[in-house]
């Protein structure tokens, strides 16, 4: 009987619920290898940056630069902006900066005098006042008679969404060019 017990002990299967140390070591080795690879990659990138910087320094020391004549500052105008000329855009940006210092009530009062939209954030109010000072007041829509067209200075067009009439909203959806909708004079 002794021999049968010893045979049973030898035939026991390993306990799979406990982690095997050999596997743990192999995963630790993999982690350390990946860390080493990452560190080597970082060091290579640093060396490449240093060589590029050194090359730029030597190239810049060899090039002689003539001092160009100072250019007059031209206002930066976004690409494909059709609503303003370069001078108008410069004045528009300057007026926005000036109008930011004014109170909301002062900006709203200017807009009321010119029969323009009075709601919105301080930046929107300053934007409307500056736009009106440069180009003039936007008139009511000639198509629907009640809507106030919105100006898209990138396209150089006006778009009238419509207006609220007592209870109902009257849709317009009319688009105008700069020539089709002349602006009124701005009142200060």
Automatic annotation (TrEMBL):
Q: Which Pfam families match?
A: PADR1_N (PF21728), Zn_ribbon_PADR1 (PF08063)
Q: Which PROSITE patterns match?
A: PADR1
Q: Where is there biased composition of kind Basic and acidic residues?
A: 8-31, 40-52
Gene3D superfamilies with a match to the protein in the record: 3.90.640.80
User: One MF term in GO for this entry?
Assistant: zinc ion binding
In this chain the PARP1-like PADR1 domain maps to 86-136, 137-183
Listed InterPro entries: PARP1-like_PADR1_N, PARP1-like_PADR1_Zn_ribbon
User: Which residues does the annotated region (Disordered) include?
Assistant: 1-83
Q: What is this protein called?
A: PADR1 domain-containing protein
């Amino acid at each position: 009987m002794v021999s049968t017990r010893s045979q049973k002990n030898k035939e026991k299967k390993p306990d799979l619920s406990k982690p095997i140390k050999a596997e743990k070591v192999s995963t630790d080795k993999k982690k350390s290898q990946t860390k080493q690879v990452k560190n080597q990659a970082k060091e290579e990138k640093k060396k490449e940056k240093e060589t590029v910087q050194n090359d730029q320094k030597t190239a810049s020391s060899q090039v002689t630069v003539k001092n160009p004549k100072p250019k007059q500052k031209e206002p930066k105008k976004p690409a494909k902006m059709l609503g303003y000329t370069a001078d108008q855009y410069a004045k528009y940006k300057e007026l926005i900066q000036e109008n930011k210092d004014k109170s909301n009530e002062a900006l709203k009062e200017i807009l009321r005098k010119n029969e323009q939209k009075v709601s919105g954030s301080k930046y929107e109010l300053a934007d409307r006042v500056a736009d009106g000072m440069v180009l003039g007041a936007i008139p009511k829509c000639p198509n629907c008679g009640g809507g106030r067209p919105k100006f898209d200075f990138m396209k150089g067009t006006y778009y009238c969404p419509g207006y609220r009439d007592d209870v109902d909203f009257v849709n317009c959806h009319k688009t105008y060019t700069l020539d089709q909708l002349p602006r009124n004079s701005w009142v200060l």
